[in-house]
Amino acid sequence: MKDLTSDTLTATVTDSFSACPDPRTKEIITALVRHLHDFAREVRLTHEEWRHGIEFLTATGRKCDGIRQEFILLSDTLGLSIVLDAINQRHEEASTESSLLGPFYRDGVREAEFGADIAQTEGEPALFHGRVVDANGTPVASALIEVWQTAANGMYEGQDPDQPEGNLRGRFRSNAAGEYAFRSLKPTSYPIPTDGPVGRMLIATGRHPMRPAHVHFKIEAHGYETLTTALFSSDDPYVDSDAVFGVKSSLVVDYVPKEGRERFFDVERDFVLIEKERT
Ligand code: BEZ
Ligand code: FE
């Protein structure tokens, strides 16, 4: 029997997976082992520190339930979610960039008419409109456009029992010219949930928990890749320091003040979808 030395230890552990029947699982677990070992060596991790690490991960798991997913929040705040987004989005020059779905998406919202107002609470009125098109600029008709955002108090409808059911959530279809329009509110910046271990990690490391004001969009159309993205307000103080790293400059929009029957902000924005690869 050969003694394990610090030089042979990592290879011995990765070799222990050599009989793994699934090549992808084997690739992932052996790379994970190599990076974990390198990490521990690089920072010369102590037993005491790793015990704290395990306590933190345990608390993260305990905070999860059917609604709250603290591990996703951890992945978001460590920038891992947006790395995955970058690796996995097929991005073509002309197409709209993606951003994080976040934990507040809700399925099953009733479809509303072109131009409907999704705000049932007070705030600064805003009109969102534009077209859904393909990479050649051809309109995509009948695309399903789902939107959701926080109320003026920085809370999503599901987080706040004082908001009416379905407040600031909408589901629309683009018309034959690819156009969509809905009325809503100018969004406000808000903190990601801080009442758990991830919030404690942010405070302990001197980070703020704020996301710059944004409206989420999920756009689905037959024959196209689903686009999950968001539009961020250019005048938001946190636009350069999003707690979950989801802002891309192409997704930052101006809210243009306009006068109609009332004062409102106008946001005109097209979304460019990528055709699904034909196999
Ligand atoms: C959100 O934008 O809804 C969100 C994204 C990641 C973590 C928390 C919230
Ligand atoms: Fe959000």
Automatic annotation (TrEMBL):
For whether the record's keyword set contains Transcription, the answer is no
This protein's cofactor list reads: Fe(3+)
Sorted alphabetically, which keywords does the UniProt record give? Answer: Dioxygenase, Iron, Metal-binding, Oxidoreductase
One annotated GO biological process: catechol-containing compound metabolic process
Which parts of the sequence belong to the Intradiol ring-cleavage dioxygenases domain? 128-156
One Pfam family name is Dioxygenase_C
The molecular function terms in GO held by this entry are: catechol 1,2-dioxygenase activity; ferric iron binding
* Family (UniProt): Belongs to the intradiol ring-cleavage dioxygenase family.
Q: What is this protein called?
A: Hydroxyquinol 1,2-dioxygenase
Q: What is the lineage of its organism?
A: Bacteria, Pseudomonadati, Pseudomonadota, Betaproteobacteria, Burkholderiales
